[in-house]
Amino acid sequence: MKIVNTSPLPRSISSLFPGRIAGTLAEVLFLLFLGMLAMVIHAKLRIPLQLPGRQGVIFLTLIILGRGVSQFPFAGTIACTGSALILATSWLGFREPLAPVVYILIGVILDLLYLNFSKVMPFVLATALSCAIGWMFIPLIKFGIASITGLIFTSFRFGIAWPLATHLLFGLAGGLLGASIVKLSAHLLKKE
Fold first, then answer.
1. What is the CA angle 79-65-140, rounded to 5?
2. Distance of CA 188 to the CA centre of its chain
3. Can you give the pTM of this predicted structure?
4. Ramachandran class of 159: left when φ > 0, alpha when ψ lies in -120 to 50, beta otherwise
5. What is the CATH number of domain 15-186?
6. How many other C-beta atoms are found inside a 10 Å radius of the C-beta of residue 84?
7. Tens-digit pLDDT profile for residues 66-98
8. Whose CA is closest to 60, among 164, 153, 182, 189?
9. Dist CA 188 CA 190 (whole Å)
10. Are 178 and 127 in contact (CB under 8 A)?
11. Residues 27 and 79 sit within 8 Å (Cβ to Cβ)
């Protein structure tokens, strides 16, 4: 007779490892890797569609999936730090010198917005709104950098309203998709 384990799956990655330090380290490495993966996918899908922020759908979906399996309240910041590490190497062809700083700031903004929204809204709505507003900060940060340093960003060739609107919409879509996957997978795991 075959023995079947019917224990529920662990809530976070760190609970898969026996030691607390090993589990925490594994979770941080997983989140960093997920952020790196999101940036590699972002680099490989660079198709000039004149839709700034479109990569936010896939990027934010992966970041939210990381938050869904993590116990850390700042899981998005850790994952975005992984993206920043990849951006800092510049081997993917990104030419913006301050992009790593922008992505770390986006991670912090996403997490702070989510921590505040989750107190008053359901998970999916809090995640979608935090992603929409957080992703919209990319053109705002770039506009601030351009105003201070004089760097030219091609996303502003149509003005600032277009990048703000597209980042908001793609951020909302990525947040909804990621939160929906997390919620659906939690629901399916609960049924088993």
1. 55
2. 23
3. 0.83
4. left
5. 1.10.1760
6. 23
7. 998 898 999 999 999 999 998 888 777 777 778
8. 182
9. 5
10. yes
11. no
- What the block records as the tokens of 73 is 């309240």
**Residue at token pair 């510049």:** 90
Residue 43 scores a pLDDT above 80: yes
For the stretch 129-178, pLDDT in tens is: 999 999 999 999 888 888 888 877 777 777 888 889 999 999 999 999 99
User: Which residue is it, tokens 């998005």?
Assistant: 76
Tokens standing for residue 71: 């116990």
What is the widest separation between alpha-carbon atoms in the chain? 72
Structure token digits, residue 1? 């007779």
Angle between helices 161-191 and 56-69 (to 10 degrees): 40
Q: How far apart are CA 26 and CA 33, in angstroms?
A: 10
